[in-house]
Amino acid sequence: MDIIKSIWDVNNVEESVVTIGKFDGLHNGHKVLIKKAVESSKKRRIKSVVFTFANHPANYFNNHSVKNIITDKDKMKKLNHLGIDIVVNIPFDEKMTNISADDFARKILKEKLRAKKVIVGHDFTFARNKEGNAKLLKLLGAKYNFKVEVVKPVKINNIRVSSTYIRNLIAEGSVNKVKEYLGRNYQLEGKVIKCKQLGRTIGFPTANMKIENEMLVPKCGIYATKVYLNGKTYFGATNIGYNPTVEGKDLSVETNILDFNEDIYGKTIKLEFLERIRDEKKFYSLEELKSQLKIDIDYIYKKYICKK
């Protein structure tokens, strides 16, 4: 799969089938568009292209207003796995805010990508001030000789699959419901950093992760997680919060990795969120905290490790 980071660097694309979108999450709705593009391109024996943005367009106007639910690196990996030939992964910038709908269709879709077919979602908008929509794109397609397919919304449990809905599930801690819509459990990745090391002193050492500011962090609480480290998979009890028992002030994401006792400072770990077990709460002694942590870990052992 080829990744192009500037639309103006596109100069040798043969005829293509293009699908357009932010694809923030690559959820089950996005996959429908992408699979259609791959299938159509194979039938025509031409290239499949995803036209997307490295940053969320909303964040161009209001920085950090929308948190990511997938890293750019993971998005590229998943697009490659889905069989896309070319990804145009460009920054949403001033040029994108000023381009007209007609220029977008002519200069980018026709001249740069040589599109023979364009596949978009039902709520697709494009160009300056969102002046373009699916209906206008069909008219421009007729003008510039490419077909347009508009895909109906994907619904699960009578709920439209959308990045906004998935973000809301994560933000409210309903991580056990995310997989049905996202197509996988929600994940966070980061390096293990040194902090107070309080957990070690009470018999529950934790790996404290540094999270990218652009990523969405689930609601504060205790979570059952899978932990991916050095090619191996473990289970963990992850605390997201401010450690109120010891008057913590900064938000932290720290995981007690079960059946594990190694120095991993500086290593990168990935968390897969399975279930939110309980709220974070303030305990009146470290002994009370230890007792609750034992209960949390026993629950994870029984449900996820010792199922028999």
Walk me through what this model shows.
The protein has 308 residues and is α/β, with parallel strands linked by helices. The protein folds into two domains: 159 residues, HUPs (Rossmann fold, 3-Layer(aba) Sandwich); 121 residues, Beta Barrel (Elongation Factor Tu (Ef-tu), domain 3). Helices cover 32% and strands 28% of the residues. The chain contains ten helices and 16 strands. The strands form four sheets. It has a six-stranded parallel sheet. The protein has a six-stranded antiparallel barrel with strand order 11-12-15-14-13-16.
Q: Which helices and strands, and how do they pair?
A:
Elements: E1 2-4, E2 16-20, H1 28-44, E3 47-53, H2 57-61, H3 72-81, E4 86-90, H4 94-98, H5 101-112, E5 115-121, E6 125-126, E7 132-133, H6 134-144, E8 147-151, E9 155-156, E10 159-160, H7 163-171, H8 178-182, E11 187-193, H9 198-201, E12 207-210, E13 221-229, E14 232-241, E15 252-257, E16 268-278, H10 286-305
Parallel strand pairs: 1-4, 2-3, 2-5, 3-4, 5-8
Antiparallel strand pairs: 6-7, 9-10, 11-12, 11-16, 12-15, 13-14, 13-16, 14-15
Helix pairs in contact: 5-6
